[in-house]
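Attaching the record inline, Q. Sequence:
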Amino acid sequence: MVSRRDLFVRSAGALGAAVSATAVSRVAMAALPEPVLQTSATTAPPLLPPNGRPYQPVLTLNGWTLPWRMNQGVKEFHLVAEPVLRELAPGMKSHLWGYNGQSPGPTIEVVEGDRVRIFVTNRLPEHTSVHWHGQRLPNGMDGVSGLTQPAIQPGKTFVYEFEARRPGTFMYHPHADEMTQMAMGMMGLWITHPRGRHPQIDTVDRDFCFLLNAFDIEPGAATPRPSTMLDFNLWCWNSRVFPGIDSLHVRQGDRVRIRVGNLTMTNHPIHLHGHEFSVTGTDGGPVPRSARWPEVTTDIAVGQMRQIEFLADEPGDWAFHCHKSHHTMNAMGHGLPNLIGVDHSGLAQKIRRLVPEYMVMGERGMADMAEMEMPLPDNTLPMMTGQGPFGGVEMGGMFSILKVRKDQKPGDYSDPGWYAQPKGSRAFEWTGAPLPAPARFAAEGGQSMPRQQAAPASGTVPTELRARKPQGGGHGGHSGH
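Structure, as predicted:
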């Protein structure tokens, strides 16, 4: 993270920017809060409040919190909308748009009742605005270009000022050429902490947050296609995909809160292994205690936020992911032919004589693609990847790990490494006597109304399907068709 005034030296136009809709002098411009930039994609530690009302800070997964300054009792921030270079995972970077050097932009943390002033400087090639999603504020501060304000033109700076009226988890994003700008990664989180004790908001030991977003980037390319409506191929948490998404590290017995906002074009059933949680908040505010129930999966629709809480009382390395299976994969071709169960090994050998790098994909399922070292274009991630302590994890996209440890110190967010499972507590291969044939249920019954079928033509043999099962150790030959 760097703080530097030469941000404006690199953009001479910004020195003559406008505050609100009118131009101001260079002397007035120098009074702006210093812009703070972050270019690293690693998770920054929580930002402890240096002044203002006290609160317990959040940790933004693969992100950071924007510093502020206090100016006569007002909390002032400076957002810079600009093109950025974001590492989606080691081995792939993308040209995105974001704020202050990153996509998503930095998390803004305030306290209920704070007077907040946000300077927004536009260094994009087109106009923009910022909508403060879910906030109660004056209409003229809502950030819808053309409706509630003039658009922020390139090189200009606008000011948004309002009171943070209610606690909760909110988002910010453009409301100008929204299809392009959000598809390019422009978004961020806003956390308003409660002022003092709140009857519906508990104190927690760990507080995480991240946004769900998605891109359509062709293999070998580096820039998203903003015209895509649904067929995205990179499903992200905070513009990161597995194995680039950091894991969540907690102490056994911690009360944990995770805040997730969805700014993709579809819903996401977010699933946590090993624990039950309750949905304790939305972008509409805290959920009353009488309306909560235990869950292991919560569906987050487009434009929604869900806040979940649980007691981390089960030690281990627990998967945490979207339960749409294609959302735990990286860039792939959706038009692949279905080759499951098709034995074309002989044909593949003949093709390799002409094309040595030809690979059979899909005969035994898509895991083949994780096992084979398939040549990839530059700046492209494998569809499934990740190496765990017992082999390939075969994941991508929206997947991470909750690491619960008894000896993790309070407030320690460092990675404790892989979990050492106690003896006798891990699944194992059976090497004893052969298993007996499974029992079959003999009274299947019949159709309530039999289908009327024409008699087969003379000389034809009815087609009979049989299950195609692998022989031997799993990757050997196959039985008949």
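The longest strand covers residues 74-89. The radius of gyration is 27 Å.

More tomorrow.
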